[in-house]
Amino acid sequence: MNTLTATVYRAADTVGALTSLLHSGAVRRDPEHGRLGGDVLITAGPAAAARSTA
After folding, report:
1. CA-closest candidate to residue 49, choices 26, 29, 30
2. Which residues contact 8 (CB under 8 A, 6 or more apart)?
3. Cα(32)–Cα(15) distance, rounded to whole angstroms?
4. Cβ-based neighbours of 3, under 8 Å, separated by 6 or more
5. How far apart are CA 52 and CA 54, in angstroms?
6. Helix, coil or strand: residue 26
7. How high is the pLDDT of residue 2?
8. DSSP assignment, residue 39?
């Protein structure tokens, strides 16, 4: 929602960015398949956790 209302980015930009992040393993989603809606949880994936320096 923030992408739609509070930034210069378009919803299509968000979908493209998330798709790239999902394919790279940087993030994961639950459920894994289906439309991207408010009930989908996006979390850092194993690849992102491995790169963390915290």
Report:
1. 26
2. none
3. 15
4. 9, 10, 11, 13, 14
5. 6
6. coil
7. 58
8. T
pLDDT tens, position by position, for the chain (54 residues)?
555 566 666 777 888 888 899 999 999 999 988 888 889 899 997 755 555 555
Which pTM was predicted? 0.60
User: Of 44, 36, 33, 47, whose CA–CA distance to 3 is shortest?
Assistant: 36
CA distance 9 to 32: 24
Question: Residues 32, 35, 39, CA angle at the centre, nearest 5°?
Answer: 75
Q: What is the pLDDT of residue 11?
A: 74
User: What is the C-alpha to C-alpha distance for residues 33 and 51, in angstroms, rounded to an integer?
Assistant: 25
